[in-house]
Specification:
about 40% helix; single chain; 12 helices; alpha/beta; 5-stranded mixed β-sheet; globular; 4-stranded parallel β-sheet; about 325 residues
Length: about 325
Amino acid sequence: MMRLAHTSPHHGAPRSLERFAGRRSQIVFGLAVAVGITLSAIVQTVAAERVIEDATGRSVKIGSTDRIVTIGGDITEIVYALGAGDRIIARDTTSSYPPEANAKPDIGYMRALSAEGVLSVKPDLIIAVEGSGPKDAVDLLESASVPIVIVPEKHSPESIVAKIRLIADILGEAEKGNKMADTLAARFGALEAAIAKIPADERKKAVFLMSLAGGKPMAAGHNTSADAMIGLAGGINPMGSVEGYKPASDEALIAAAPEVVVMMNSQSGPPKPDVVFDSPSLRATPAATNKALVAMDGLYLLGFGPRTADAARDLAQAIYPSLDLPEWPAAN
């Protein structure tokens, strides 16, 4: 006689409960991991956020720096020097160094910007040198949701050092920035010590000419990057009584009697001494007698960025060929 085995209706309950408990543990663990990741991301974002006071006195809250538009050749060069060139998604026309910067989209000349053009590349951050414009475009950018930091533009070694530290802070690269700034300050100090040995009566008069277009030389006066560079190189700017870049009359240049003429290279190459000193305003100058013409790359000479100590040293050597310039202090 066959007997049926008696099966309790609760026989499978323990296993079901175990499976449910296991699934619940997995769900709880998964939620905990997700919450942990979210909280970590929030903490990192908050930690990454910082407030920077820019050249206009505005307090700018910086968040992500993954997609940057740089405006100003010195700004772009510093960002690259800090190892953050891959974060640049667009730059202005003056940003031609390092060479790889030319591969980035060009948003136009720094003094003729379009706010719509800048914002069209969807930046997280805009870093612009003081003097960028026009004002209406900058005002629109400042009112947009994208942070824009205006970096001070002054023509001194101290201002370059401060500019490097500021941009490094913006990028979250303070350690790199401090090392670069310290190295640059040491180089400027070594150059200043060498220049100080030149007797006052042996200092040469050097004039910077922006162009000779139409036979009217455009000379650099006071409060210009060229004037500052001549001073860093140990020269005296005989046009220093003029403010900014101004056309110089024949009489003014003849009276200035420059011993050296400094110019920028053009796209077609360096200016030719025979052409430069054929100008009526320069023929009778001491510079023409000795064909003393120094031509350098414009951004290198006037950029006031990471290479400015090198440029000032090169200019000093060109003005004073026999000057004993020391080797640079080693990089930190």
